[in-house]
Amino acid sequence: MTRLTTKTAGGQADAEAPDPAAAPPRPPAARRRAAVKRRRNDENVRKWEIWLPLGLYLLFTLIPFYWMLLYAFRPNGTTGLAPWPLTLDHLRHVWTDIGFGTYFANSVKVGVISMFATTFVALAGGYGLARYDFRGRKTFMLAMLCTQFIPGALMLVPLFEIFKKLELVNSLWSVIVAETVFQLPLSLILISGFIRNVPMELEEAAWVDGASRLRGFLVTVLPLLRPGLIAVSSFAFIHSWNHFLFALMFLSDQEKYTVPVGLSYTIGESGSDLGSLAAGGVVAALPVIVIFALIQRYLVKGLSAGAVKG
Amino acid sequence: MATAEVSGIRRKRRRSNRGPRTPYALIAPAVLLMLGFLVYPMASIFYYSLQHYNVTKPWDNGFAGLDNFRQMFGDDLFWQSLGFSAKWVAATVGFQLLLGLGLALLVNESFVGRALSRALVFSPWAVSGVLTTSIWVLLYNPTTGFTKYLADLGLVQHGSSPLADPSAVFPAAVLTELWRGVPFFAILLLADLQSIPKDLYEASSVDGASRLRRFWHITLPHLRDAIVLSTLLRAVWEFNNVDLLYTLTNGGPANQTTTLPLYVAHKATVAHEFGYGSALTAAAFFILLFCSILYLRLSKFGGDRK
Question: What is the top-level taxon of the source organism (chain A) (predicted)?
Answer without folding.
Answer: Bacteria
